[in-house]
From TrEMBL:
<dbReference type="InterPro" id="IPR050396">
    <property type="entry name" value="Glycosyltr_51/Transpeptidase"/>
</dbReference>
<keyword id="KW-0511">Multifunctional enzyme</keyword>
<dbReference type="InterPro" id="IPR036950">
    <property type="entry name" value="PBP_transglycosylase"/>
</dbReference>
<feature type="compositionally biased region" description="Basic residues">
    <location>
        <begin position="31"/>
        <end position="42"/>
    </location>
</feature>
<dbReference type="GO" id="GO:0008955">
    <property type="term" value="F:peptidoglycan glycosyltransferase activity"/>
</dbReference>
<feature type="region of interest" description="Disordered">
    <location>
        <begin position="1"/>
        <end position="57"/>
    </location>
</feature>
<feature type="compositionally biased region" description="Gly residues">
    <location>
        <begin position="687"/>
        <end position="697"/>
    </location>
</feature>
<dbReference type="InterPro" id="IPR001264">
    <property type="entry name" value="Glyco_trans_51"/>
</dbReference>
<keyword id="KW-0645">Protease</keyword>
<keyword id="KW-0378">Hydrolase</keyword>
<keyword id="KW-0812">Transmembrane</keyword>
<keyword id="KW-1133">Transmembrane helix</keyword>
<keyword id="KW-0808">Transferase</keyword>
<feature type="region of interest" description="Disordered">
    <location>
        <begin position="687"/>
        <end position="807"/>
    </location>
</feature>
<comment type="similarity">
    <text>In the C-terminal section; belongs to the transpeptidase family.</text>
</comment>
<feature type="compositionally biased region" description="Gly residues">
    <location>
        <begin position="780"/>
        <end position="807"/>
    </location>
</feature>
<keyword id="KW-0573">Peptidoglycan synthesis</keyword>
Length: 807
């Protein structure tokens, strides 16, 4: 290295001397400075001779790096092309993404046209584009992809532009062709990754080859989000203009198409200036591309008016209760899943009557002054002939309280369970004129404490008609003892009651087990339909988006009870609304009405079930505390806890409206072929004791002595007599033959609705009378003794009849 350095240095000096000898001007100090610099460099070891090899080395390294980069770049291109080719070969057009096909399911009232609400993951209604005006599709093409009809599914310039944007800004921007957007929304779901975009582009190429342009455009129009919660052109037409897409005008179509890139921000209600600008852009392109004429452009140049948009929850108010009841019924049918309902685009027609629903809601929502806010109300109206639910009061606002007071809330139904035991007595062949001890403070087998009636009233010896009308506990405890609690529970379940009933408790006839409004309606509707059971339902039929019926409910018409047995129960229940615990209801409605009241044993709830042949209505009130535990229902606005009050009032209010101008249908005629005292003569007072009157009993007290007593009885006729009423009158006219007996007795009974007196002696004789109206009916019996009775009634007058020893 030293020798080499010297040689280079010597050469440097020779060069300097040669320059001077060539006549180059000498700069003196400057020249010396340059020379000194060179020598200084030499001393520092930085001569030109040492730099040249290093530069060549650097250039050699750079060259190799560039070659390597080039090779890698080329390899990347080859790999990319290979990967693209592989993806293209292996990519198949998949099944459409489920969410892209999801449609709004709409629920309607029974008329099939009035909408209740809808279920939707996305608010979409898929339509056939053949019904759309041509300019609707052309407006979207003008807005989103002018080359749509000529490109092969992708736009290379658009992809390059998006790639540059992604690199320079760090954002993610995809291709812009309609086919690419269609591929993303319809098949893949949203994606912003490079691999996802590559997949999207490949799929777009394949779609362009496999599908017709019109098919692609139609599917795109049914898929794209267009603002206001609307997916697809049909939902958008409804959201902006409250019309179907097939009825859109050119300017309306251009407005919707124009705001596609940012529908929420460019909604005319939010930014009318931008909406106008975008609409005009679409119209300009449509004219330039020959889709519309200049005249059409000019005519459509004004931004169209849109309807007011206020996002609302379809479950608000009482709609939420109706919708969830519909959904639950369909899911429980096993035909639909929740996902099916929310994405299937079905049309569900319910059994609900729009007017009745409005009426029941008004009645249930109206709260008298002083009614505690804690008191809950539930109600339902059904047609017992086919099980269709016509109206339901489940609460005032679903968004405030999702608990359905008609289908979910439990309360003690009280005496509304008694008709099931009464039906059992009819099945056993017990004549309803059999006398029972209706006094309070009686002891029954399996019961620790004595049983009493409401207000501890003593009703004396009364028949089953009277006991039903006045809801006499001790009589029905006696009936249940003969029938057995298991049998009473079985009958209730056969009628359709699904709630648990204690089959071992003698008290089950008094309604000690919790039930629901829906359950009571189901059970009583079977009796009201003369023993034919039809499962209650709110759905009538379901059709898919193509209009094909996929589900339909038909009446089962399952015979579970004898028709005449049920007619006897109906007859007894009619006394309730004439002069029983719901006195005056029949007179108010101007027709015969069967009814039964109920009060929870601890006065925490009250209920009423009533019906005419074509409509049954149930109401209940209960009073839970803040933890849901039952509390006593306090007196309010003149209504006590007694079931004679508020539930019957709700029934009358609703039925007055629901039955207005409706046909008066007579109850079926009942024939009581049962035996006094039952088939074995052990029911009630036994086979030797019968009432000579028919349908309902006193509301007062009676005192009795001896082997036979007497009771005042009430007729079951109203001013408007039906065939059923005439039958009731016939039943009040002395039903037995008196015969001798070994004992004698006398008694008297009186009440607010009538009075009756009678006596019996050795051979047995008796008479009775009652007054209360202009209509009269007399009958007589003969035997070893005699029996006579009379009845008269005008809208609830009293009738009297004797009781004596009867063979």
């Amino acid at each position: 290295m030293v020798s080499q350095s010297r040689t280079i240095s010597s050469g440097s000096h020779r060069s300097a001397h040669a320059s001077r000898h060539a006549g180059a001007p000498s700069n003196g100090p400057a020249q010396r400075r340059r020379s000194g610099a060179r020598h200084g460099s030499h001393r520092a070891g930085g001569s030109r001779g040492t730099r040249r090899p290093n530069n060549r080395k650097k250039r050699s390294i750079l060259k190799r790096v560039l070659i390597a980069i080039g090779i890698l770049f080329a390899a990347g291109i080859v790999t990319g092309i290979g990967a693209f080719a592989y993806l293209y070969i292996t990519t198949e057009i998949p099944q459409a993404d489920k969410i892209a096909l999801s449609q709004k399911t709409t629920v309607y009232y029974a008329d099939g046209t009035t909408e209740i609400g809808s279920f939707a993951e996305q608010n979409r209604e898929i339509i056939s584009c053949t019904d759309l005006p041509d300019y609707v599709g052309k407006a979207i093409v003008a807005s989103e992809d002018r080359t749509f009809y000529t490109n092969k599914g992708i736009d290379l310039k658009g992809i390059a532009r998006a790639l540059v944007n992604n690199i320079t800004t760090g954002s993610r921007q995809g291709g812009s062709t309609i086919t690419q957007q269609y591929a993303e929304r319809y098949y893949l779901g949203e994606t912003t990754s490079y691999l996802g975009k590559a997949h999207e582009a490949i799929l777009a190429l394949k779609l362009a080859q496999a599908q017709d342009k019109n098919e692609i455009l139609c599917n795109y129009m049914n898929t794209i989000y267009l603002g206001r919660g609307a997916y697809g052109i049909q939902a958008a037409a409804q959201a902006y203009f409250n019309k179907d897409a097939k009825d859109l005008t050119l300017q309306q179509a251009a407005m919707i198409a124009g705001i596609i890139p940012s529908p929420s921000s460019w909604d005319p209600a939010v930014n009318s200036a931008m909406a106008t600008q975008r609409m005009k852009r679409v119209l300009n392109i449509m004219q330039e591309d020959g889709y519309i004429t200049a005249a059409e452009h000019k005519k459509a140049a004004t931004l169209p008016d849109t309807i007011e948009y206020s996002p609302s929850n379809v479950f608000s108010g009482y709609n939420g209760y109706l919708l969830t009841t519909v959904e639950n019924e369909l899911i429980n049918s096993g035909t639909f899943t929740k996902d099916d309902i929310e994405t299937g685009g079905y049309k569900i027609v319910t059994t609900l009557d729009k007017d009745m629903q409005s009426e029941i809601q008004t009645v249930g929502d109206t709260r008298p002054d002083g009614m505690p806010s804690s008191i809950q109300v539930g109600g339902i109206a059904v047609d017992p002939r086919d099980g269709t639910v016509k109206a339901m009061y489940a609460g005032s606002d679903y968004l405030t309280n999702q608990y359905n007071n008609a289908t979910q809330a439990n309360f003690q139904p009280g005496s509304t369970m008694k008709p099931f035991a009464l039906l059992g007595a009819a099945q056993e062949g017990v004549n309803f004129n059999t006398l029972f001890n209706g006094n309070s403070h009686q002891h029954f087998a399996g019961v620790e404490n004595d049983v009493s009636n409401a207000l501890e009233l003593n009703w004396g010896y009364i028949n089953l008609y009277q006991a039903t009308a006045n809801s006499v506990n001790t009589v029905f405890m006696d009936v249940n003892e003969h029938l057995t609690p298991q049998r009473t529970a079985k009958i209730a379940h056969e009628a359709g009651i699904e709630s648990d009933i204690d089959e071992t408790s003698p008290y089950n006839v008094l309604g000690i087990n919790a039930s629901t409004v829906w359950d009571l309606a189901q059970g009583h509707s079977t009796i009201a339909a003369n023993g034919v059971k039809n499962t209650l339902h709110v759905v009538s039929n379901v059709t898919d988006y193509k209009g094909t019926e996929v589900y339909k409910v038909t009446a089962a018409n399952e015979r579970v009870f004898d028709a005449n047995d049920c007619a006897l129960v109906q007859k007894a229940m009619q006394g309730t609304t004439v002069n029983g615990t719901a006195t005056g209801v029949a007179a108010t409605l101007g027709r015969a009405v069967a009814g039964k009241s109920g009060t929870a044993n601890d006065e925490t709830a009250a209920s009423f079930v009533g019906y005419v042949p074509q409509l049954l209505n149930v109401w209940a009130i209960w009073n839970p505390d803040e933890n849901g535990s039952p509390q006593v229902v306090p007196e309010f606005s003149g209504y006590g806890v007694s079931s004679t009050g508020y539930p019957a009032h709700l029934f009358t209010e609703f039925m007055s409206q629901a039955l207005a101008n409706s046909e008066v249908i007579a109850f079926p005629t009942a024939t009581d072929d049962g035996k006094i005292g039952g088939p074995d003569g052990t029911w009630g007072l036994g086979s030797g004791y019968a009432s000579g009157s028919g349908t309902s009993g006193n509301s007062g007290n009676s005192n009795n002595s001896g082997s036979s007593g007497n009771s005042g009885s009430n007729g079951n006729q109203s001013d408007q007599q039906t065939e059923s009423d005439k039958q009731n009158q016939e039943d009040t006219s002395g039903d037995g033959q008196s015969s001798g007996g070994s004992g004698s007795g006398s008694g008297s009974g009186s009440g607010s609705n009538g009075s009756g007196n009678g006596s019996g002696s050795g051979n047995g004789s008796g008479s009775g009378s009652g007054s209360g109206g202009s209509d009269s009916d007399n009958g007589s019996g003969s035997g070893n003794g005699s029996d006579s009775g009379g009845s008269s009634d005008t809208g609830g007058g009293a009738s009297g009849g004797t009781s004596g020893n009867v063979n």
